[in-house]
Write a structure and sequence with these properties.
Order of helices and strands of chain A: EEEHEEHEHHHHHEHEHEEHH
Number of strands of chain B: 2
Radius of gyration of chain B: 26 Å
Oligomer: heterodimer
Shape of chain B: globular
Number of strands of chain A: 10
Strand content of chain B: under 5%
Strand content of chain A: 15-25%
Shape of chain A: globular
Structural class of chain A: alpha/beta
Order of helices and strands of chain B: HEEHHHHHHHHHHHHHHHHH
Helix content of chain A: 25-40%
Helix content of chain B: 55-70%
Largest sheet of chain B: 2 strands, antiparallel
Distance between the termini of chain A: 35 Å
Chain lengths: 264, 414
């Protein structure tokens, strides 16, 4: 398996604070990679560098797609999403709360629809190519709503959905951009055991059915240990362990920094 | 509250009233008898304080009803019957000039209402859909109006030549303004656009050699009917509208004609915006309003979203400006002051941000309301202000507080 995302000596400094220190890791194609670590370890900062919200102080972020790797640290955030194909969700859900569930998923398909609407001219005239593109967008949205069990709530305002549904909708919205890498920032936060079990199934189906790699920050160890193919552990901005869930679980450094007392 | 508490509360309120009443009603200035002279009107102060005391006491006696969250009955009603309301409105608009009570004044007022509806729809793209607070909208309106005035003054352009050019000019100015303010949002953006509105007005006043300064521009061209002027006398070698159709000339024809082309353009604008809202551009505007960070994370360039909303908003203001200028036959910088921007913003807010019909209704209310006050002269603005306050208490989220989705699964399937 080849590395899809290669993070090399990533460093992020905020004034005097060193948030990420010489971090290197890789995320492989069609694999779920989890980034874990205690609060303040720099996990979300890694995500923000990766998705263009921060510009890293130094280091490289290379996405291997096509012949030449894309250098993410040089791209604008919206280009990373559009051209590199990295979609993300947020720790505090960021849906378009005033718009409907369906509209959220249609907006995510902006790139295709905008092209089909011919800078809005063809769209204004209601030409056939645009109409069929909209039809396809609708079908894709419907398919995702079916998968997350929200099809009968498609026309409901997104902000009125229960919390767990909002979480799943945000993942579906990210998937509607047709990414190669899906970055999830604490997708299981605030979910009850049943919902987090459902989330596991959804993430596994994204990996196996859609063949999309997942990079995930999570505190819920059931999720992390249950579905990850690889776990990267951060502490104070440094990588302290990297391996399979079983390896990480028995790593003394991880136990010391994060998991607490070793299990008998 | 028992009696003593209530009395104490009323006394405190009366004391505040006393402090306010002394300068406000207490001083009476007499100028005629040589030199300023101030007399105290203690009786007036006493009346004011007594009224406040008794009033406050009386309010306390009325049992207070518990405030309940009421469902938005009006919004629900309006949203449900949107189509009927819209078509009825359109039907009334079409027969308006031929109604028995129609007069030149009412026709002119209706034209003004239509122009404000267009302005409201234009600003709605920027404020209501894209969520970018713009306090300098009159600037784009001014660019449109002055494009007509100056192209006519310098190059003898007619109404129809100037109309597309005015839209284009406004849109270009809109993009030029948007470029430096791309990073700003909310209050900061509002301040910059406010300043921009003033800059345009002050340039129009001071650049006398080009814009004719504060005197304005006179004798603007009126729209022609496929080249036929609607006037009493034909230009050299031409015919007038009345001669061509073999009817008698009547000045009312000119008003009716202007009214109808304004109505036609307003309908076109409505079609344009309703259509845009269902396209990716329109959805990206709303997405930007809802959450800019999420918009960016979905691969949408926020810069082009902002630019497109500013450009479309400005384009529509430019068209409206041309109609405004030709309706008056005259433009001067004073027509484009902050009050104008504020009125249009009030229309958008009152209409319920994002709703086409709501904005049309709001424009009708806000443009005709000051006209009702004409008989009260000096109390006119007071009346207008009180009505605005009342409306915002009654309908704080605008007439149409329920958003119509741009696409529905229930309608798309099957």
């Amino acid at each position: 398996m080849s590395a899809l995302l290669q993070v090399e000596s990533l460093t992020m400094r905020f004034g005097g604070l060193l948030a990420i220190d010489q971090l290197s890791f890789a995320a492989e194609e069609e694999k779920i990679t989890a980034v874990i670590g205690p609060n303040g370890a720099g996990k979300t900062t890694v995500f923000n560098c990766l998705t263009g919200f921060y510009r890293p102080t130094s280091g490289t972020l290379a996405l291997h797609r096509g012949e030449r790797p894309l250098r993410l640290e040089r791209m604008d955030g919206w280009r990373i999403a559009r051209d590199a194909g990295i979609a993300r969700t947020f720790q505090n859900i960021r849906l378009f709360a005033g718009m409907t569930v369906l509209e959220n998923l249609i907006i995510a398909q902006h790139k295709k629809l905008m092209r089909a609407s011919g800078w809005s001219i063809a769209g204004l005239l209601g030409l056939a190519p645009y109409r069929s593109a909209e039809r396809a967008a609708l079908d894709r949205a419907a398919a995702w709503l079916e998968r997350i069990g929200l099809l009968d709530r498609a026309d409901q305002v997104a902000g009125t959905l229960p919390y767990g549904d909002q979480r799943r909708l945000e993942i579906a919205r990210a998937m509607c951009t047709e990414p190669v890498l899906l970055c999830l920032d604490e997708p299981a936060a605030g979910l009850n055991p049943h919902e987090s079990h459902e989330l596991n199934r959804l993430l596994l189906s994204i990996r196996d059915r859609d063949r999309v790699a997942i990079l995930l920050i999570e505190h819920d160890m059931n999720v992390v240990m249950g579905i990850s193919d690889r776990v990267v552990v951060l502490d104070y901005g440094k990588k302290i362990a990297d391996g399979t869930p079983a390896q990480v679980r028995s790593d003394p450094a991880v136990i010391k920094a994060y998991l607490g007392e070793p299990e008998a | 509250m028992d009696f003593g508490q209530r009395a104490k509360d009323s006394a405190l309120t009366a004391f505040v009233a006393l402090i306010l009443a002394i300068p406000l009603v207490g001083f009476n200035t007499n100028l005629p008898s040589g030199g300023p002279d101030i007399a105290m009107r203690w009786d007036w102060v006493a009346i004011a304080v007594a009224v406040v005391f008794v009033g406050r006491f009386a309010i306390g006696l009325v049992p207070r009803r518990r405030q309940r969250e009421r469902p938005p009955v009006v919004s629900l009603f309006l949203t449900k019957h949107q189509n009927i309301l819209g078509w009825t409105g359109l039907a009334i608009a079409i027969v308006w000039p031929y109604l028995p009570f129609a007069s030149q004044y009412l026709l002119d007022l209706a034209t003004a209402v239509l122009i404000y509806i267009m302005l409201g729809w234009g600003l709605n793209v920027v404020v209501g859909l894209a969520g970018l607070l713009n306090l300098g909208y009159a600037a784009f309106y001014a660019v449109g109006a002055y494009t007509l005035a100056l192209t006519a003054a310098y190059w003898n352009f007619g109404f129809w030549e100037a109309l597309p050019l005015a839209g284009l000019m406004s849109a270009v100015v809109g993009i030029l303004l948007a470029l430096p303010v791309l990073r700003l949002r909310g209050d900061y953006l509002a301040i910059v656009t406010l300043g921009f509105g003033e800059i345009i007005r002050i340039v129009l006043i001071n650049w006398q050699s080009f814009t004719y300064g504060p005197n304005g521009v006179n004798g603007l061209p009126r729209p022609t009917f496929f080249g036929l002027p609607l006037s009493a006398r034909a230009p050299a070698g031409g015919e007038t509208f009345a001669q061509f159709f073999g009817i008698d000339f009547n000045p009312a024809q000119r008003y009716i004609f202007l009214y109808f082309i304004t109505l036609a353009l307003a309908l076109l604008v409505n079609f344009f915006i309703v259509r845009l809202r269902r396209l990716p551009v329109g959805r990206s505007w709303e997405a930007l309003r809802e959450d800019e960070i999420a918009t960016r994370a979905l691969g949408i360039n926020p810069v082009s979203v902002k630019l497109s909303s500013f450009a479309v908003g400005a384009l529509l203001a430019g068209f409206a400006g041309v109609f405004f200028a030709t309706r008056q036959g005259f433009v001067s910088p004073e027509s484009f002051n902050f009050q104008e921007s504020a009125t249009v913003l009030a229309i958008v807010v009152l209409g319920g941000m994002g709703s086409q019909l709501g904005i049309a209704i709001a424009a009708i209310i806000l443009v005709t309301l000051p006209e009702f006050g004409r008989d009260f002269a000096q109390y006119r603005m007071l009346l207008f202000g009180a009505a605005m306050v009342g409306i915002m208490i009654w309908r704080p989220r605008g007439l149409f507080s329920i958003r119509t989705p741009s696409i529905l699964m229930s309608k798309a399937k099957r």
